[in-house]
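Fig. S4 source data, part A: sequence.
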Amino acid sequence: MSNEQEILKTQKDIAERERISNKFKLKGYFSKEEKDEAIEKVLDLRYSDMNVMAIAVADNINGYTTPEAATDDMVFNEINKQIEFLKAKLVNEIEENQ
């Protein structure tokens, strides 16, 4: 995948997670469908990026909760951590493309 394609994919990943995060911020909870979508995004990035997986493991060092068993707040927090990670990744990709 070219760097420009990586940039577009990362921008899309950020936008999807921000949309999920904003829905939670508005209501304070996820509907079943929204939570399922959020969990899918969390797991997709965990499985596709070893750095994200390492962060998730480190965050759960004292006890692991599967995303499916996590509270809405826990899923929301992980989505926001992924947004921050992806934003940093995007900056690196843009700098590499210059």
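Fig. S4 source data, part B ends here. The chain has a mean pLDDT of 91.
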